[in-house]
Design brief:
Elements lengths: L19 H8 L15 E4 L16 E4 L1 H7 L20 H4 E3 L6 E3 L5 H13 L12 H5 L4 H20 L6 H15 L2 H8 L3 H10 L10
Bound molecules: zinc ion.
Length: 223
Amino acid sequence: MRPIDKGHKDQEYKPYNTAKRDLMEAIGPYCSYCERSIVTGGAIEHKQPKSKVRSLEYSWDNFLLGCVNCNAIKGDKDINDSNIGDFVWPDTDDTYHKIKYDPITLIPAPADNLSDEDKERVSRLIELVGLDRPVPKEGSLTYRKASDTRVEERKKCAAEARSYKAMYLNLVDEAKPVFITTLEYIVQCSGYWSIWMHEFEDIPEMKEALLRCLPGTKIDLFE
Ligand SMILES: [Zn+2]
């Protein structure tokens, strides 16, 4: 999960959805949780639900961007000042290094090197937005309705990232800069930034490009 720095804004956004363009400019049009592109959809996500914590309905610090699946699963589950620290959040934690993805299933889980407390916090966030829900069984109603394709999309993206990496490693040096620029565009369109980053982070010039190709990535966590 891409860690983000959306900056601070003092103003209130009333109604709250007037913050959408500012948020998209600050962190890019991607779901803050599953990282899919939400150029044509998605909504303001209130970390502390507006139905429960009215005082933060218009507050920038309480906003993220959410896709239809992450938003629907999170719903108005009770997050408030007293338990918000029980979860990791992409705008306040290093969610890139704290979450790992199974290389085959692409299901996320807490990274191995975390304290027990941090593992719990990661697990709670994953559960909060259902990021570990597997691909539904082929032929099942959920599968046919294609109502939650997040893991499938993530898997497809991982396969693409692997094949682009193989291509990159076979290029002559002169061809690499153009390839990197092209890949930046591909990542911007595809979303799922963390999946690309996990694949390319051992190639310094590619890592550098990925850190700078989307707005609002918290790059100081990668130095
Ligand atoms: Zn999402």
